[in-house]
Amino acid sequence: MQSDTTARLLITCPDRPGIVAAVSNFLFNHGANITALDQHSTDPEGGLFFMRLEFQTPHLDVSREILEKAFAERVAARFEMNWRIAYAADLKKVAILVSKYDHALLELLWRHSNRELPCTITQVISNHPDLRPEVERFGIPYHHVPVEKDRKEEAEAQILHLLGDTDLVVLARYMQILTPQFVARYPHRIINIHHSFLPAFVGANPYKQAYMRGVKIIGATAHYVTEELDQGPIIEQDVARVSHRHDVADLVRLGRDLERNVLARAVQWHLEDRIIVYGNKTVVFS
Amino acid sequence: MQSDTTARLLITCPDRPGIVAAVSNFLFNHGANITALDQHSTDPEGGLFFMRLEFQTPHLDVSREILEKAFAERVAARFEMNWRIAYAADLKKVAILVSKYDHALLELLWRHSNRELPCTITQVISNHPDLRPEVERFGIPYHHVPVEKDRKEEAEAQILHLLGDTDLVVLARYMQILTPQFVARYPHRIINIHHSFLPAFVGANPYKQAYMRGVKIIGATAHYVTEELDQGPIIEQDVARVSHRHDVADLVRLGRDLERNVLARAVQWHLEDRIIVYGNKTVVFS
Amino acid sequence: MQSDTTARLLITCPDRPGIVAAVSNFLFNHGANITALDQHSTDPEGGLFFMRLEFQTPHLDVSREILEKAFAERVAARFEMNWRIAYAADLKKVAILVSKYDHALLELLWRHSNRELPCTITQVISNHPDLRPEVERFGIPYHHVPVEKDRKEEAEAQILHLLGDTDLVVLARYMQILTPQFVARYPHRIINIHHSFLPAFVGANPYKQAYMRGVKIIGATAHYVTEELDQGPIIEQDVARVSHRHDVADLVRLGRDLERNVLARAVQWHLEDRIIVYGNKTVVFS
Amino acid sequence: MQSDTTARLLITCPDRPGIVAAVSNFLFNHGANITALDQHSTDPEGGLFFMRLEFQTPHLDVSREILEKAFAERVAARFEMNWRIAYAADLKKVAILVSKYDHALLELLWRHSNRELPCTITQVISNHPDLRPEVERFGIPYHHVPVEKDRKEEAEAQILHLLGDTDLVVLARYMQILTPQFVARYPHRIINIHHSFLPAFVGANPYKQAYMRGVKIIGATAHYVTEELDQGPIIEQDVARVSHRHDVADLVRLGRDLERNVLARAVQWHLEDRIIVYGNKTVVFS
C-alpha cells in the first residue's frame, strides 16, 4: 500500500481555477512522482477546495525543508492554502486509552502486528489494571492510571505527562469523559468509538436505548473528539441488522464487531493522512 | 408464496408452558395443516409470548366461525391470548396517500401489478393533482383532496369518508401531518415512510440534517403512525453509504431508492400478517 | 450533478512522471476549470495509468475542435495516450433491448424520466410485443422484432438497421444471444444485466443453479458484452442474502430488485463517462 | 443466549400433518418447556420437513435416556424421523487445524475466551510450528504435525490419533487437502473456510482469480467438508465491495476480515445445533 518513500500533501483552500496545475507542476519540477490524487470541492458552502496527493520522494532534487519552504512561498501563499506534508517514513506515535473491554484494543494491536496500521503504538493507558497482560504480550508498555471521582484532573495530568507529544490518541472504549482542557491539547488528534449510529442515541447506554426504541439496525461511529460530547466530526460508521430476537446482550455482542472494525478503519485512514476536517465534518479520501 | 387457502393465526399472551402444544393440537384436530410457525418470547420484559402460524384450510372440518369460536373458548381463554386469524383469500383493502413525489407510490403500484403485494389497492388520495395519470394508468381511482392551511380538518373529514373501512393506509411520502383524531381511527393500520434512519433526524428536512451533520450512512424507516410524530413502532429500516462527495441532492436521490424498498417491504409484511405490535415496538416474523 | 457545460477527458497511457502536470496545465491554459479528477495506476501489470477529468467549458478560449487537436499534438502524443473528450451537452443516444420481463426496463425509463440518466432513449426493441404500452406511455418508440429460431440473423439485421449509430445498447433482460458480428459493431457499448454473481452460475437459469447449490447470497452483474457469453468486463455487481426459506421463485423475485439497481448504476456510469475498459476489466471512477 | 439446562431437538422427516402437535405434546407432557421453535418444509423437493426446538430441562419428569427412548418409540417412529437431541451442558469438543495465517484462528480463540462459542477447544494442530505461542497463551495445547509431501497419510494418521472422538474439526485456513478417508471419519463435522464466494473461484489462489476477473465484490464461504474439494454444503457466506483500486494484496487483506467473521458465525451455529444438512445443502435456523 505504501512505501517509506511515500509522502502526502493535504490542502484546503478557497476553490479557484489553476490549483491542480500549480500543485502538480511544482511537484513534477522538483522530481516528485505523483502516485495518487484526490480532490473535492464544496460549492454550496462557499467553494472550499480539498486535495490529497501522494507522491514518491526518491528523486526529489531538494531536501524536505527546502521543498516545503518553496511550496509555501510559490504555491500555498498564492492560493491561500491551509496545507501540510506528511512523510510515511515518519511513523506516527499513537497512544491507546482503554477501560475494561478488550475488543477494540485487541483489534488495533492485532492489525498493528499484521502491519495494517503504519504507526508506533507507544503505550496503552487504562483506568483499570485488567488488560495489562494482553498488552504487554505485544511488547507495548501499559500504564494504569486510576481515575477517582473527585480527582479526575490529577489523573488527566498524569495521562498528559505520559502522552507528551503523541501524534494520535485513540479512545478504544475508554469510559471516562475527557475535560475540554485535555481535548484542546490534541485538536483532531483524538479518535473515539461511539457504540451507536450517531446522532441517534447519544449519551449513556446506547444499546439499551436502541433496544427500547425497537430499531431494526444498530451502528457504531468513529469520530474526532471535541469539547461537545458525541458531537465531533464523524470519520466512519457502520451498521448491522437486528430484529426482535436480539436482546440488549445480543446488541452489545453484535456491536462489538462493529466497533472494532469501524475504529480500525478510522485509525488507519488517520494514519495514512486521508482525513481533512472542516467545520464539524470530514473529507475522507479513502 | 401463498395460496388462497392459507390462513394465519397471530397470538400474543403471557409466556407459559404448553402453548405450542395446545395451539398445534387444536389446529391438527380440526384438519388444519400447519405450514409455518414462528414464535418469540421476551423474558426481560415480563415474559410475553408471540406466535405466528400459517395453516392450510382445505381440510378444515368446520366453518371459519365455528373454528374461531372453538379456539376462543378452548385455547385462547385458558392462556389469556390476544389473537386473530387472517385469511389470505380475504384480500386487504389498501389506500395510498401521497403528495407530489412519485417514487414510493410507483414502487407499490408496480409491485402490486407484479403480484408481490397481496391486496386490493382501492384508491390513491393526494393533496395534489399531479400524479393522477400515473395512478389511473393502473386502473386505480385517484382522489384529489386539497389541504388548505386553516381547513385541514375539512380535508381529513373528506379523506376519512373516502377511506371508509380501509384495512391499511399507506403514507407514501404524504407531506401532511395527520391529526390524532385521524390516527386513532386506524390503530397500527397506518404505515409511513420516514426519510431518515430514525431516531436520528426526526422532523423536517432529514436529508439536509444528515448532510449538515456529516454522517457517513443515511437511512429510511417505515413505521406505524401514532399520535407522536416520527415516534411510532418501527417496522423496517435500511441504509446506504454516503461520503463527502454527496450533496443534499445526492442524498435525496439515494434516499429515494431506500424509501421505496423499505416501504414496500413493510407493506408486504403487514399484508402477509407478519407484524405484531407490542408497546412501541414490533415483532416481525419475516 | 452535471451541467451542460461539463466535459470529461478520459485517458489511458503508460504510467510516467509528469502526466497530471501536463494535462492540468494544458486545460488551465485554455480556460478550462477542472472540477473533478480521478486517477489510477496499475503497477503490477506494467504500469498503466488511467485518468478522468471533469472540466467546465464556458471560459474555453478555443473551439472544441481546436482544443482537441491541440491536446492531441501537445500532450497526448508525448505520453502515448489513448484518450477521448465527451461533452455533457451531447446527450448519448441509447437503445434498450428487452424481452418480456419489465422490471429492468421500467427502472431505466423511470430513472430517465426523473433525470437520473443523462441521455436520449431513442427506442425500445423487443422480440415480444408485450411491453409496448408501458414504453409508449413514456413517449418512446417501441419496435417489435420477432426472432425466429432459424432466422436470427435476419432479426439482427433489422435491429442493426434500427439502431444505426446508437451510442449505447442496453440489454435489459433481452433473452436472445447476440452474434459476434453484432457485438463487434458496438465495442464496449453494449451493457447486459446477468442475473447471477458472475463468474458463478454462467449460462442458463442462474437462480435455479444458485438454489440447487444452496448459496447463502445471490447476486446480479452488469457487464459489457463481448464475443464470449457472460465473460465481458464487469461494471457493477450487487448481492442479497438468502436462506433455505427462499425457493427459486423467491430468488427470482429478490433478484429482480438487484438486477434493476445494478443495471441502472452501470448505465448511469457509462453515460457519465466514468468507465474505462482495459483488457477484460474496468476502471470505474464512480 | 443459552443456559446449561437448554436442550435442542433436531428433526428431519417426510412432511405430513400433525408433526408439530405430536412433538410439542410429547415435550409438554414430560415437563419440557419449549423456548424456541423453527420449522421448514421443502415442497418442490418431495416434501421434507425440518424442525429445531429448544427446550428447558429442569422440570423434566424422566432421565435423558428415558426421554429419548420414549421419543423414539412414540413419536419418531411414527413420522419416520431422523432426529437427535443435544444438551447445552455437554460442551462440544472442538479441534482447530491451521497452517500459518493466524487471523481465523485468533478470531475463534478470542470469541471463545469471550464466551461467544459454547465449546471446549481441546487442541490446535498445525503443519507449522509458528503459531504455538499465540495458542498456548490461551492455555490450549498446540500440536505440530508436519506434512511431508510423500508422507501425507502418516501425518493424517497422527492427526486422527490426536483428534480421537472430537465433535468438530475446524479448518481455520489449513492449507492441506484432507484425504477422503479422513473426511469420512467426521461426516458434517469438519468446517472449512474458503476464501472466495463459492462456487466462484474454486481451487487455488481465489483472490488472484478474483483480481484477474475484475469482480466488484469478493466473498468468503464456510462449508462442511466433503470428499469433493470446495463442493460441500455451504453454511455461511459474506462479501465486501472492491474496486479497480484494490490489488491482490488488498483483496487478501479485506478477505481476512470476511474469513474470520464468516467462519466464526458458522462455528457458532454448529455449536448451537442450528444446522441441518440435507443432500448437499444446509438448513440454518439462525
UniProtKB/TrEMBL annotation, chains A, B, C, D:
SUPFAM superfamilies assigned to the protein according to its UniProt record, in alphabetical order: ACT-like, Formyltransferase
EC number: 3.5.1.10
Every ACT domain range: 8-99
Hydrolase in keyword set: yes
Stored PROSITE patterns: ACT
Active site: D230
UniProt keyword annotations, A-Z: Hydrolase, One-carbon metabolism, Purine biosynthesis
The keyword Cytoplasm belongs to this UniProt entry's keyword annotation: no
Pfam families the UniProt entry points to: ACT, Formyl_trans_N
GO biological process, one term: 'de novo' IMP biosynthetic process
GO molecular function: formyltetrahydrofolate deformylase activity
EC class name: hydrolase
Similarity section: Belongs to the PurU family.
Protein's recorded name: Formyltetrahydrofolate deformylase
Lineage: Bacteria, Thermotogati, Deinococcota, Deinococci, Thermales
